[in-house]
Amino acid sequence: MRPPLSSPPPSLWRDTDFRRLWAGQTASQLGEHTTLVVLPLFAVLTLDAGAGQLGVLRAVGQAPILLLSLLAGAWVDRWRARTVMVLTDAARAVALGAAAVAGLLGLLGLPALFVVAFTVGALSVLFDVAYQASLVRMVRRDQLVRGNSALEGSRSAAQIGGPALGGALVSLLSAPVAAAAGALFFAVSFVSLRRIRRPESAPEPVAPVPERPEHAAPVRGRIREGLRFVAGNAWLRAVCLASAAFQLSFAATMTVYLLFLPRELHLTGATVGLALAATGPGALLGSVLAARLPGRLGHGVVLVSAAVLGNGALLCVPALHGSSTATILALLAVNFVFGTFSQLVNVTVMSVRQAVTPDGMQGRAAATITFVGMGFTPLGSLLGGLLAQEWGLRTGLLVTAAGMMLSPVLMAASPLAGLGRVLPDSRKEPRHTE
Q1: 401-418: per-residue pLDDT in tens?
Q2: Entry pTM
Q3: Residue 425, number of CB atoms within 10 A of its CB
Q4: Which of the residues 44, 102, 106, 157 has the least number of beta carbons within 10 Å of its own beta carbon?
């Protein structure tokens, strides 16, 4: 149960259990972001995968978002979120450890990469839904923004270390060593989360099923409840639409981007990792800004303006040529700006979603938005590979990056744009917010 609101909120950093949650989240995200770079770079640099093959690899890793998100939400709303997080950490460590051994034995080809990518992706879907629900069950409502800022800051720290470490290990040592590093991070997260001592109560049901205990409710019925709740809330509907537009275009952009940097700009694996890692410091700054700016400028203003600035920055990348120092510095600047404003959007959207959702619906609401928003990423990855193959890397990157600007347009035309400085309440319907 979350603490009551009768007293001023204590500092989250004085809470030992929250610090353990934060540390475990940081290690888990570091393992995830290392793996997201290791597998594509292994395919491109070692197995000489083409644009189509890379698109398929990324789509396979993202397919669990579409296949499992709704089930994950229903499961998390029945189970203790920390149990889900611990089990998925352990399973990802085992999967990547097996990949490292297979790589050392020379058996890690494209089919094996597909299996590893799908397994890690499926487990990451469960973990990501669970950690969002875990925070809501641990802290007070008036601590949500700062709690999300801290946890999203941990994800930002992973974005700093993960791509750089993954790219360096693949380039300087080998893909098996990089996979082993990812397994180690998941093991560290497992240990940290296991040390949380505060009991986690099972979530309270939102609407009990007549003549049937909540724990016995059919999974399909619980999924339908989540879908109806999100579809019936104007704020959450807008989040779904904007997220779907962003994730489709971003997945396509990143597929072309991972080919554009080494093949068009002739950057090494380590330099690619460094360029991608620049989003991390920007995301850290975005997390800090997210704890302050929405309360001063208004949540709607922050959402729309940050999406325009962050997504628009990637439109500069197709204009770059060669592997000169100026090109690398420009890439670092673009990724820093993108990381800053994208993280500002992420934290603000998550806080809005948590504020307007009852406790017993948190897992299903998060999973439904993930399903709708990120369910298009496999299609986006395939589309990016197709555009790069048919139109060329530079044109394909320009088209996919331009598509990302649809997301702020949809937010500007929705009730999200009218959100004020105070978070809405889950008991109120979305109206014109001052």
Answers
A1: 999 999 999 999 988 888
A2: 0.64
A3: 10
A4: 106
